């Protein structure tokens, strides 16, 4: 019996195909992964983050983008971050693919928590311009920042008990009350 290998797409073929699709797909090393729809709470937190970050970067030459913008990592990966900020001139001139974010934020869902904290974070760490990766869990209201220092080492900063989300790479702050506005408080244990 002959077993046929599954065809592997190259980056250019994926981008050409993806631009024709009504749904979003991520791409890693030739494999394509369909993106699932988000829960209401996810969309509310993403919207709150974008609004808070947009106010902070206004007039700075940086821009905030959302989950419909493609982020290319190396020659083998395209992801859709929930929110990212770029100040890179090439990124600010592109229409389709971004490559140099300063900040990436993922809002966790029960189905994506392991991926966002594991493989996806490992992929993001390959981006030389990335200074900070935020992980926001709207269900538990946990907020963690992974920050890269000048030596390239990553350190975690847990802001879950804080009243303010600090975005160090932008010297910005968003009150947690604004971040979670419209999200029901978690049940008291």
Could you explain the architecture of this structure?
This is Putative restriction endonuclease domain-containing protein. It holds the Pfam family Uma2. Residues 11-167 form the Putative restriction endonuclease domain. The chain has 6 helices and 13 strands. By secondary structure, it is of the alpha+beta class. The protein has a single domain, classed as tt1808, chain A, CATH 3.90.1570. It has a 6-stranded mixed sheet, with helices on one face. A 5-stranded mixed sheet has the order 2-1-5-4-7. The longest helix is centred in the first third of the chain and has 18 residues, at 40-57. Residues 1-6 have low confidence and may be disordered.
Features:
Putative restriction endonuclease domain-containing protein, Nuclease_put_TT1808, 24% helix, Uma2, tt1808, chain A, alpha+beta, Restrct_endonuc-II-like
Topology:
Elements (H helix, E strand, L loop, with lengths): L10 H8 L6 E4 L2 E4 L5 H18 L5 E4 L3 E4 L3 E3 L3 E4 L2 H5 L3 E2 L2 E7 L5 H5 L1 H6 L7 E6 L4 E7 L5 E5 L5 E4 L4 E4 H4 L10
Parallel strand pairs: 4-7, 8-9
Antiparallel strand pairs: 1-2, 1-5, 3-6, 4-5, 6-8, 9-10, 10-11, 12-13
Specify the CATH architecture. Alpha-Beta Complex
Low-confidence stretches: 1-6
Q: Which structural class fits the helix and strand makeup?
A: alpha+beta
User: CATH homologous superfamily name?
Assistant: tt1808, chain A
Ends distance = 58 Å
Q: Mean pLDDT, as a whole number? A: 91
Protein name: Putative restriction endonuclease domain-containing protein
Organism: Rubrivivax gelatinosus (strain NBRC 100245 / IL144)
InterPro entries: Nuclease_put_TT1808 (IPR012296), Restrct_endonuc-II-like (IPR011335), Uma2 (IPR008538)
